[in-house]
Amino acid sequence: MNVPLWVAGPVVVLLALATRADVRTRTIPNRLTFPAMLLGVAMHTALNGTAGLGASLAGLGLAGAVLMPGYLFRWMGAGDVKLMAAVGAWLAWPLALVAVLASLMMGGAISLVVAMRRRMLRRALLGAGLIAQSVISGSGMSAPVTTGVRFPFAVAVFAGSIISFWIRP
Predict the structure, then answer these.
(1) In sequence order, which residues have a C-beta less than 8 Å from that of residue 34 and are 6 or more positions away?
(2) InterPro entries annotated for this entry (predicted)?
(3) Is residue 17 exposed (0-12), middle (13-18) or buried (19+ Cβ within 10 Å)?
(4) pLDDT tens by residue, 98-129
(5) DSSP run (H or E) holding 25
(6) 3-state class (DSSP) for residue 87
(7) What is the pLDDT of residues 69-83, one digit of tens each?
(8) Could you tell me the pTM of the whole model?
(9) What span, in angstroms and rounded, lies between the C-alpha atoms of 149 and 130?
């Protein structure tokens, strides 16, 4: 594992609590994400000084920024963005980038499984195609386009973040 225990332990606890809340209530509470962000930044600063502060803030900002379009287009909730930002604060730059990309890949895999189980794979793939077409063309979307597949995204963040523990950026 390439992540120190003082980072891995709190991240696993945060993700377990957030996933439990998201699966049960489809929300991730601010009382969980905001303190996690602050603690991640504080720990990196305390242990690594200004370099730790910069790396943690970069991880927080990058992880949140990558998921922000998903929130703006209503593909995910604000809690998902804040959870990823909190994980980014703990994992810091550049590992936060690995975690967010792995989380997005896991989200795609989970959405395929959910779409197949709900017998809506064709509809989901058509929606994904429309999204990709509008992003590539730069035309924007007049109305939010979705794949129609909804699931607690904290599950994908949990899986992607755990995967990132073993990847050296």
Answers:
(1) 82, 86
(2) Prepilin_IV_endopep_pep, Prepilin_peptidase/N-MTase
(3) middle
(4) 999 999 999 989 988 888 888 877 877 777 77
(5) helix 5-25
(6) helix
(7) 889 888 899 999 999
(8) 0.88
(9) 14
